[in-house]
Amino acid sequence: MMRLPLTYKTFDLVRMPFPYNDKPKSKIRPALILSPEEYTIPIGQCIVAMITSAKHSSWPFDTQITNYLEAGLDIPSLVRFKLFTLEINTIEKCLGTLNPIDQLKVTQIFNNLFKDLHPYDDLHPYDIPSPPSIKELQL
Predict the structure, then answer these.
(1) Which domain holds residue 79?
(2) Burial 50-76 (b: 16+ CB within 10 A, else e)
């Protein structure tokens, strides 16, 4: 019998190898799934945010996880908006899910972080202007 691949939902906390910019190796650590299944399943990739205890540093938009034990974590942690796209087959296991209050906080920060990427929210998709063609840009 063929085994179906596991799927992960937005706000699942998972354990997976996390890449480092300054090192050739990765480290197994928790991460927060940000991408919906509609994105993840067809391409086998997921967008994740780093989960850290952040004892020595802070970043803008760091968000404390209010009930870290319920989320499947061993120590007090926060969501750090250090974002990556990684293959779902590298996920070792699902640890848990953020509670609804933390989900709302993460959603609000994510929307704030990318607010300039959706300037046409009030328009119907057919009313959004098309980007200029390469020919028009060369003029």
Answers:
(1) 12-115
(2) bbbebeeeeeebbbebeebeebbbeee
